[in-house]
Amino acid sequence: MYQLLKPVLFKMEPEKAHQLTVQGLAATLSTPGVSQVFRATYRFVDDRLHRKVFGLTFPNPVGLAAGFDKDGKYYKNMASLGFGFLELGTVTPRPQIGNPQPRLFRLPQDRALINRMGFNNEGVDALVERLTNQGRPGNTIIGGNIGKNKTTPNESAADDYVICFRKLFTLVDYFVVNVSSPNTPNLRALQDREPLTALLSTLQTLNKELATETQAAELGKLGQLRHAKPILLKIAPDLTDGQLDDILEIVKDTGIAGIIATNTTIAREPLTTDKQTVADMGMGGLSGAPVRARSTEVIKYLYEKSDKTLDIIGVGGIESPESAREKLNAGAKLIQVYSGMVYYGPGLVRDINKSLI
């Protein structure tokens, strides 16, 4: 069905088409009878797909990458497509409108997207309210991707991450620290060893404090202890081998749970789309098929340099069962999709999971 609608959607401005698609999904799933057929079509359930990573049990290894549902408006609907986990955000302490439109562009020849959204979101309080009121969809794992506001200087960035972490602590299963988006000025400078170590150490300290604080309050109610949450770091594909070595040292020094590799790239190669067309699109992060090879290289490098001990979520250019297995074979324990689903359709998750069985 998606392939029939795709030509119509691709004639629309990409951001508008995205909104129309997710709103249409929500309307479909609210229709009695239709929702059951939809779920039966797109979900593939098999106990052999279960993965235990970061101390969490994932129903399957295919997740929705951050950016698709920044504000948690559609996460229960997206769970119906068979994802094993959903990553919400990037969310910031205060609402922000992001960069001026147009800010999302398609490159159909390359099966790619360029975006400079700029962390547009309604703020962490709006996400907290939705998660509190709507709850979680079955056994699907929920992740919270957190960032800083554009107007917050880097020297105060930790304060923004702390605010989001504290407010989401009891509502998500894991956290992702996003310092690798190219669309917030100077954000990537936080990937340098000194500021990144300080930021992650601050969050790890808070993580343990919140686990201790909530433990006593929830022990009687739930009959189980509240544990510290896995903290992951999402990195750019544009890092050098030396910088990746630093990342491995930072993971070891701070004790975070793992890495998400990778975010979008500022590179514009290799592309078949006309260079002037690409230049006219302007700045932004490139995602989709052109990022596939570099993302896999980063995963393989980190996995092998860590003596195959690092837990990694692979993302970047996954648009087929074959490209999904490529990431897993390189060392990723879990994978995420976004741009590939725009071109392939919602059946991508089902087809990947089937191929793994």
From TrEMBL:
Annotated residues that bind substrate are located at 70, 115-119, 178, 183, 263-264
Cite the Pfam families for this sequence. DHO_dh (PF01180)
Q: Which residues form the Dihydroorotate dehydrogenase catalytic domain?
A: 49-356
Q: Where in the cell is it found?
A: Cell membrane; Membrane
The protein's predominant localisation is membrane
Q: Which cofactor does it need?
A: FMN
| PROSITE patterns reported in the protein's UniProt record | DHODEHASE_1, DHODEHASE_2
Asked whether the UniProt record includes Cell membrane among its keywords, one would answer yes
Q: Which residues form a coiled coil?
A: none
- Gene Ontology molecular function terms on file: dihydroorotate dehydrogenase (quinone) activity
**Tree of life domain:** Bacteria
Please state the pathway this protein functions in, per its UniProt record. Answer: Pyrimidine metabolism; UMP biosynthesis via de novo pathway; orotate from (S)-dihydroorotate (quinone route): step 1/1
Give its E.C. classification number. Answer: 1.3.5.2
Q: What keywords are annotated for this sequence in UniProt?
A: Cell membrane, Flavoprotein, FMN, Membrane, Oxidoreductase, Pyrimidine biosynthesis
The membrane topology term of the UniProt record is: Peripheral membrane protein
Work out whether the entry's keyword set contains Oxidoreductase. Answer: yes
Catalytic residues, per the record, are 181
What does the cofactor field's note say? Answer: Binds 1 FMN per subunit.
Q: Which reaction does it catalyse?
A: (S)-dihydroorotate + a quinone = orotate + a quinol
Quaternary arrangement and interactors, per the entry?
Monomer.
The record ties this protein, via HAMAP family, to:
DHO_dh_type2
Describe the family membership recorded for this protein in Swiss-Prot or TrEMBL.
Belongs to the dihydroorotate dehydrogenase family. Type 2 subfamily.
Protein's recorded name: Dihydroorotate dehydrogenase (quinone)
Q: Which organism is it from?
A: Neolewinella antarctica
